[in-house]
Amino acid sequence: xxxxxxxxxxxxxxxxxWRWGFGILSASVLAQLVFAVHGHFGFDGWFGxxxxxxxxxxxxxxxxxxxxxxxxxxxxxxxxxxxDDRRGER
Amino acid sequence: MSGLAFPPGLILxxxxxxxxFFGPTGRxxxxxxxxxxxxxxxxxxxxGPAVTARLLEYEVVLVEGDRLSRLxxxxxxxxxxxxxxxxxxxxxxxxxCASLVYAGAAIGVIxxxxxxxxxxxxxxxxxxxxxxxWSAGTVAAYRASxxxxxxHLLGGLxxxxxxxxxxxxxxxxxxxRMTEALSDGGLNSAGAWLILAGFLxxxxxxxxxxxxxDAYPEASPSGMVTLSAxxxxxxxxxxxxxxAGTQLLVWLGLYMVFYGIVYALLENDMRRILAxxxxxxxxxxxxxxxxxxxxxxxxxxxxxxTHIIYKALLLMSAGAVLHMTGRRKCSDLGGLxxxxxxxxxxxxxxxxxISSFPLTSGFISKSMIPQAALDGHLTFVWFALAxxxxxxxxxxxxxxxWFVFFQKDSGxxxxxxxxxxxxxxxxxxxxxxxxxxxxxxxxxxLSEPVDYVPYTGExxxxxLQLLLFSGLAFFIMLPxxxxxxxxxxxxxxxxxxxxxxxxxxxxxxILSADRTFRAVxxxxxxxxxxxxxxxxxxxxxxxxxxxxxxxxxxxxxALGLYLIFLYW
Lengths: 90, 568
Fold this sequence. Notes:
Shape of chain A: flat
Strand order of the largest sheet of chain B: 1-2
Number of domains of chain A: 1
Strand content of chain B: under 5%
Oligomer: heterodimer
Order of helices and strands of chain A: HHEH
Number of domains of chain B: 3
Radius of gyration of chain A: 24 Å
Helix content of chain A: 55-70%
Structural class of chain B: mainly alpha
């Protein structure tokens, strides 16, 4: 183990992991063929609605966070500097 | 079982006070044993007032039981035991004492039958939690604890004002439903609003939500585990009792849900990510309380119960990493699954539970809240909650384990944490799965009868799609989520930056005004002194020395004048 990388970190496994990931994603959508998902409000009953909704809302949240970040992000020493300054003044 | 004449909260509270007088083995017994005694005491509390006393002209109800208070008392006792197990051997004694006092005070609030008892335990909780924070022993923790204490004392003040107004207008001190009083318009309405504000502050509601992610991550590894459980969940309890069905809470809850997600996405500190997600999860509960139906209130209470377990589990996992590596920032961590597989597995179980994956505790509790929105035809609320569920997986469910245990290999090779920490994590991970597999265990002790089946094919498939595709979005957007060495400004900027800046500039104005006035006054004084010196000083006209002849002349003139006046 020490001279060999963990299996998660071996490049030949990255492709395999992605393939498995997509397999699981497709399975979750195809499961709808067995367990019917009717939706609750009439317009949300189409095939794969929840998958699309989850994906798009998450994209939106990440983009919104990114946008907000441009306004509110500061260096992680932002408040510390200030506190040390004040202490220095005394 | 009606023989209990002792508030269950006092067991832990007094235990915390006497703990330092015990030796190491005695401490172990107290820290692990008293929560179990408390659990017994909680279930011995009968329905209705159990312990009363007279205080001035009021009859205070120190202990009043019902199904809801026993539910919260149960999870608080379990949490206290597991938190103690995690902390033993790693935390300072003062932290163990403070944790017991804090948990005892929280249980005191849960069983308080009147507003005065509630207030006393409420303030004791603030003191206990501040001490937990303080006992981390760092400068950062000390500063954070002072900010934390200021905010909570402010909250206590608002609550006290509310209670005073309420008691003055209604004449009674009993604590019960106040929702209708909010729209009365009288003094009792003002009281109810102030009480609501005091409760909401502890729940981490806007605009003062920032105290939570500001303070908790500065605690010790075990301190944050304890802190995560009690303050916010006590607030959820009192909100359920006092303000179920207040529509404003739906909107405040939804704000908290999305605030938690967005800020956690921007965050680099692993424990601050989890702190934001506390606000997020309490947001779900507050939304449920706002909806206010039996299903919604059950959902909020059940979610508080499961949340305490999986959030403590997540923080134990993060705490174990911090304990073994001394690092908190995602940008310094990664690849720890290689040497901490147990910690990683427990962290992942917690992450799946917080994301409401089927077969975990989060799935059987959280889904009751959207179900209540559905039953009430609240379409917008339902869609917002669905998006938020996906967002929970995004910001806590994947982000925390991914950046800590996977992603790039940081090169760190820490071993697993000490035995106590491992056992505490395994017990809570097991509870997350047991409750997920056997929801009846929890549903049976909820306050309202449960008419809900979480495991239907449709619900499971819909939830899996929602979550798995949220995971896909995470990995596609990963470059945008790259960790940076930053913090994000929050409402606390107003009292941590703007407030001090204003005070400092006001001080500067006062200082310069004072300086100017003093300069002007001193100038005037100096000119006056110089004038006096010119006229009366040693060199002045008045002080000039005269010749003897001149003096004689003056004396003769004066005598002459005197003669003239004499004979006038």
